[in-house]
């Protein structure tokens, strides 16, 4: 990518990334060519290669940006939550809200998981998500809200439940993300809370 882009250049770069992400998710990364992307946008290949060295680099940028955006949404959602258990619930809710608005990006990440070229990038994103969740899990344990167990296992369990429900219930079955989020929250919190601790309710009403 050029080191210094104008505002117009940044908009063009984002346009290419957004369009390519939709095409990759719809048709598959390997089935979508650079020609498909530039023809769809009505620009020349020179424009593409000004911003991206290759199609490979483009997908890596799309995946990395999607992971950053999801992380940003989660952090903003929990910023004012003092209760660690409630922070976990709100983060799950925020994740499903992001998914509802970015189904194509979630699909793309699911596809990348099983592609040896890009699987490591998705794993890095998952490891970052676990690192983000761990302080809240540990804080919940210290406060007596979450049962004492291996915090890494608990963090991975939460990620596994939310990811699987998102893929099976929303992407494949088209269920309401808000209802699935409520189920995921109830399931995860009931599984990790300490004895006699009741999880704080989380509103799943659409804003």
Describe the structure in brief.
By secondary structure, the chain is mainly alpha-helical. It is 73% helix and 0% strand. It has helices spanning 7-27, 34-41, 45-51, 55-78, 84-101, 103-113, 119-142, 151-172, 177-192.
General description of the model:
The chain has 207 residues and is mainly alpha-helical. The protein folds into 2 domains: 1-53, Arc Repressor Mutant, subunit A; 67-207, Tetracycline Repressor, domain 2. Helix content is 73%, strand content 0%. Helix 1 (7-27) packs across helix 2 (34-41), helix 4 packs across helix 5 (84-101) and helix 5 (84-101) packs antiparallel against helix 7. The longest helix is centred in the first third of the chain and has 24 residues, at 55-78. The protein is elongated, with a radius of gyration of 19 Å. It starts with 6 loop residues before the first helix and ends in a 15-residue tail after the last helix. The mean pLDDT is 91.
What is the number of strand segments? 0
CATH topology of the largest domain: Tetracycline Repressor, domain 2
What is the mean pLDDT? 91
CATH architecture of the largest domain: Orthogonal Bundle
Helix content range of the residues, please? over 70%
Mind summarizing the main beta sheet? none
Amount of beta strand: under 5%
* CATH top level label of the largest domain: Mainly Alpha
Summed up, the helix count is 9
| Cα Rg | 19 Å
One letter per element, helices H and strands E, the order comes to HHHHHHHHH
Distance between the termini: 37 Å
Question: Low-confidence stretches at least 5 residues in length (pLDDT < 50)?
Answer: none
